[in-house]
């Protein structure tokens, strides 16, 4: 069977990471890149990596004509418009058969539903990209603990966090474009990976029933005057008038529909984590056993003394969102693999080449969007949201948090 021809729409941070991951994935190539800022540079990087010589396309339609798979790696607020063009191209006979959507699928439930509807109408297979559930550390721990899970009982508590010092592009900081703050941006990762670890082996990723959500959102660092000034100067956003949360935490209770057992996923996310760089930390506990993972612990250490520090030009070469260029640096020998990007792409390529949806579909992406929105609702109202109540579920269908509406100052100050 031929290689899967993938077209990248979006040539920024995640697209570049994915290209590096694809060095370790068989049977696929970056066939085309949609022309936009960064596309020429990405094409040169893809060529230098030895992956392919991608064609740069002037329209999404042209990209869909030469690719089997459109990978949407664009900012959250552009997702629906981009997908409308892909669906139109597919409906009018372009070659495209599959679509990849990065997290978060939608900024609201309504938006995620619209994306699903477009993909279904155009007959496209879908992949929702949530890399953390593909992390080897997570899956190795689950393998190691298989016997304990069977004999002692399943995992009952997962604490999942993802934190760093703040995003790299202005649109992430603007809650009206991004869909909120760190809860929308990274809460989706932690909620998904917690749910995945809590799910019994062999069950569908949506097997557990969400029962209740408690949450809190806060602005702890970037609302302070001197950091607001930094945001204004660096990204042109004004956190005095239009802030987003830089800290979010909460608990989601799930019910096993077969045993009735209640289990909990606790998430904590922040953009005010001033340590070496991005930290994903996950711990999971079942009766009599447990696991713990911290992405900042690496088998590799690099030390740069003050005298030598000036020669280090790019802090992010060490680890994603790295904030330091000297001292003892956490460095990852294979960062794309650590975060699960390699396995995510490999499994998706395998599914699409078999003509199937990926393991995580856009239905699953919609479900994660719904849980994130329920967390915003819980934080706004200061009370537990009952996900078994039909009237709450109806409200969630049209809910948009005040933060995403640009009214976060009323809530966060
Ligand atoms: N899974 C992860 O760990 C992870 C990490 C980072 C980003 N992401 C997700 O990936 C998506 C992109 O994030 P990023 O960090 O790469 O953003 P980015 O700002 O670095 O790059 C965005 C790219 O999209 C292009 N673009 C902007 N508007 C467009 C439009 N209207 N049509 C077509 N292209 C357009 C830009 O030119 C740029 O090439 C986001 O949804 C984000 O949440 C996921």
Describe this protein's structure.
This protein has two domains: 4-129, Rossmann fold (3-Layer(aba) Sandwich); 134-298 and 369-412, Dihydrodipicolinate Reductase, domain 2. Helix content is 38%, strand content 22%. Strands 12-11-7-10-9-8-15 form a seven-stranded mixed sheet. It has a six-stranded parallel sheet with strand order 3-2-1-4-5-6, sandwiched between helices. Strand 11 and strand 12 form a beta hairpin. With 413 residues, it is of the alpha/beta class. It contains 17 helices and 15 strands. The chain has helices at 13-22, 39-48, 60-66, 79-91, 109-121, 136-144, 146-152, 170-173, 175-178, 182-198, 225-235, 306-309, 335-338, 341-353, 362-381, 390-397, 409-412; strands spanning 4-9, 28-34, 55-57, 69-72, 98-102, 125-129, 157-163, 209-218, 247-255, 262-270, 279-286, 289-294, 300-304, 327-331, 385-386. Helix 4 runs parallel beside helix 5 (109-121) and helix 5 packs antiparallel against helix 15 (362-381). The mean pLDDT is 95. It binds nicotinamide-adenine-dinucleotide. Residues 9-15, 34, 36-38, 73-76, 78, 82, 102-103, 129, 131, 169 line the site of nicotinamide-adenine-dinucleotide.
